[in-house]
């Protein structure tokens, strides 16, 4: 077998991260994910609020949007987001592709329009070969933009976490305390809602099942989308994978401590006051759900073309 | 020679980008570079305005800062920034390390304080091992933060650009038009100011040497720092490496087209009207200064500790 000497290979500057093995659509999606030109201001990208350096969230109660507007709800993680019943806290998008269009055109988030996003990306000559590779032609459409971002998001998985290794038979993958936490989590049926491979994201449940949740956040959850009174305060159950990284917690981001969040869940959902030991055990177990974060190579974005509109962050007329 | 089959190597998930070969201080600097917790809001990182996906700049006239404030001056590129006479347009910092502290504590940029930055980073347990590896102890000081960021910035070089290959003897590295552009650039002594390995960054020169530069930007350049009248409108000569990526141009970011920038330079600095052909040639040559951009692996940032203050982007009291 002919082979380049490894010593020589280490000098080669081509990244060997998973990014190097991605499909053309995923590669284009990774570029668009980091491209602030998808926002009105030219300053905010998907990664601004779903930061892949910090668990796919911004670790803020609610996000900073266009003109420094305060976002309406806590930014959910993009990690492992594919296999959920729906997207957004209220489930108003059924797929990642459908979801991806939301923040781009939300006036409190990226503040762009379909037309602006397509015009800007279409005006950048360096994007053309990537669209051709991904879709066969270099035509830029909003659906192609969101399809690429969705394809990239599907690569953002964290399968190899300690509890997964434990469940596969490695008894030493987690501690005794973490095992106790898992037993407690099962015993009190937290798994009823936090179910499936992501320990959540599979159903809509009432925030405050047995006791009202006090919050200043105006969101009514699922009811904001369905307009049905019975959906008031029903939210998509958050994913527990990487929960250690995705603070602050709940749809309003009101709670930044994991023990506090577990305590409140016990009281509001189970009518149960967990003991400090039980809380410590469950928190220890939750930390065994933190997986190896995706290896992301920062994309090199193509420069503006002669017709690319220059973003004006402070311009109010847009 | 024993050698792992290349096919096997492609399956290895460890990144092989330069990031993998960095020193402990550079690694820590790369983490801090991308960490928005160095800003008051928890939303702005070094990379927000010196985006390594877009030539080390934000491609805005002036930058978006804390509370969406408009920055005072165009964000200069961080690429190849080490070997300059000084840092900032007015040269008020003599080293990258000294420069790095500026934006973190500038109320119009990241809006933090030395105390806040140190308190936040010191409160994050996951940073401790990186400080220990880089500095011997896990003590967090502002100097260690800026020293690490400076060390990382020194890795952000783009040596392998077509004109460099041409100068090393590869006559086919650039086109006939690019060679004509270089000849024109030399003939009219643009190299007097755009000198050195970066084609700039080596001196302070008057913007508008032979004709006043009209701008609404209030900056007086070097005079803002020295308070000397004779330094009015003297700015550090911008680096031309990667100029194709670092638009918009000049300290006020007023010009987004490279041909327009070349035309204006001829008129304001040389009292010369370049012909359209000369401008096209020079622009073609300038594009041969675009180097291979640094391969950056996005860092995985450690989560907050129990004492880490949660950022409040909209809180005015800070």
UniProtKB/TrEMBL annotation, chains A, B:
This is C-type cytochrome. PROSITE patterns: CYTC. Heme c 2 binds at residues 190, 193-194, 265. Its main location: periplasm. Binds 2 heme groups. It comes from Parasutterella muris. Binds 2 heme groups per subunit. The lineage of its organism: Bacteria, Pseudomonadati, Pseudomonadota, Betaproteobacteria, Burkholderiales. It is found in: Periplasm. Keywords: Electron transport, Heme, Iron, Metal-binding, Oxidoreductase, Periplasm, Peroxidase, Signal, Transport.
């Amino acid at each position: 077998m002919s082979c380049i000497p490894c010593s020589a290979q280490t000098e080669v500057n081509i990244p060997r991260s998973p990014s190097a093995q991605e499909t053309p659509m995923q590669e284009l999606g990774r570029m668009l994910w980091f491209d602030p030109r998808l926002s009105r201001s030219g300053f905010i990208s998907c990664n601004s609020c779903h930061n892949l350096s910090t668990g796919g969230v911004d670790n803020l109660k609610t996000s900073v949007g266009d003109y420094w507007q305060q976002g309406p709800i806590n930014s959910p993680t993009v990690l492992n987001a594919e296999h959920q019943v729906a997207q957004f806290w209220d489930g108003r998008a059924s797929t990642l592709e459908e979801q991806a269009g939301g923040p781009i055109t939300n006036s409190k988030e990226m503040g762009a329009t379909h037309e602006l996003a397509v015009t800007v990306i279409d005006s950048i000559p360096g994007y053309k070969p990537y669209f051709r590779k991904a879709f066969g032609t270099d035509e830029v459409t909003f659906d192609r933009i969101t399809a690429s971002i969705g394809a990239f998001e599907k690569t953002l998985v964290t399968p190899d976490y300690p509890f997964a290794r434990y469940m596969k038979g490695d008894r030493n993958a987690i501690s005794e305390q973490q095992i106790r936490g898992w037993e407690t989590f099962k015993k009190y049926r937290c798994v009823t809602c936090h179910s499936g491979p992501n320990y959540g994201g599979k159903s809509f449940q009432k925030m405050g099942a047995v006791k009202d949740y006090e919050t200043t956040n105006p969101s009514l959850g699922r009811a904001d989308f369905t307009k049905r009174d019975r959906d008031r305060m029903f939210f998509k159950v958050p994913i527990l994978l990487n929960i250690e990284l995705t603070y602050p917690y709940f749809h309003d981001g009101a709670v930044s401590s994991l023990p506090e969040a577990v305590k409140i869940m016990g009281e509001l959902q189970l009518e149960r006051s967990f003991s400090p030991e039980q809380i410590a055990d469950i928190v220890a177990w939750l930390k065994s759900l933190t997986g190896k974060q995706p290896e992301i190579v920062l994309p090199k974005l193509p420069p503006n073309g002669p017709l690319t509109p220059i973003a004006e962050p402070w311009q109010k007329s847009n």
